[in-house]
Write the structure tokens for this entry.
Amino acid sequence: MKFNQSNIKKAKKYLNKNYCIGVPTETVYGLAANAYVDSAVKKIFNLKMRPKNNPLIVHYHDIDSLKKDCLINDNFIKLYNKFSPGPITYVLKLKNNSKISKYVTNNQKSLAVRFPKHALFKNLIKQLNYPLAAPSANIATKVSAVKVGDVKEEFGNKIKYILDGGTCAIGIESTIINLIGKPTILRLGGLDISKIQKTLGFKLDTVINPNKKIVPGQSRLHYSPGIPLRMNVSKPKNHEAFLIIKKRKTKLKNYFYLTNKNSLDEAAKNLYSCLRKVKNKGYKSIAVEKISNRGLGKAINDRLQKASRY
Ligand code: TXA
Ligand code: MG
């Protein structure tokens, strides 16, 4: 990671000119642009080939900057104090006089907001007088990017600049919670929902098929390495890459492991790189061993399940 002000200055220069750039966060890399400017936001959708009705997350430096655009509530304050900056995204009501581009929300009156923890990102956004709309830095339906090389693989020279923040510490996207009305989870992610429930003091439902107005990444295929993937496999076929959780002794070349220590957090961190690696090695399909459905294992299984719709 090259943490120097000259890189941040470059990033700022491009953002001020309404370009999209790659930015590091603790979850995954984002494809960022000024959330207040229509032309900048439109570029994000074009680059990602993202359907216009799939709204973007807007990233803020702190609660004061957020208050210009959104209405906050008690549940938000509880969670914000405990978990932000960090891997949680809140869906809140947009204020009528907010400056957020209508393209960010597809004209809806709600906004997904996040406060990333990555030091470079924080430093950058503190110096801007606008928030950053930033979806994950990958082509729609594909695997997210967790390092600069991945972002390049997705967009080549179509983007002007990528701020190098090293490899993302968490490696899967933020957990999304809708805080308009009764709180519900819209996406499992980098923050274990049991921690959120503990802070709020009640159990949360996870809304898999939300009503039509809220559209949280419900396109059928998602997080896909671009080749077929099947889950809960104990015996892979000869030609398949076999993704296993913990490193174990084997001479087989087609085995890829997600963790040295049997840690689900580490497995989450390595998941997308591993899927990219397998695809780039030329395998035509992936089999994945059963992964325990606890902690971040739930978010891993969610991603694999969506990837398996290929
Ligand atoms: O960790 C993350 O959240 C990363 C980093 C870059 O911050 N961002 C990310 O963005 O994953 P994206 O666009 O790939 O996923 C955002 C999800 C989408 O599924 C979108 O549908 C949902 O958030 N979303 C955005 N605005 C929403 C809203 N107002 N209501 C409900 N869901 C929303
Ligand atoms: Mg995404």
Observations:
- Residues 229-307 form one domain.
- Residues 210-215 have pLDDT under 50 and may be disordered.
- The chain has two domains: 5-206, 229-307.
- The two ends are 34 Å apart (CA to CA).
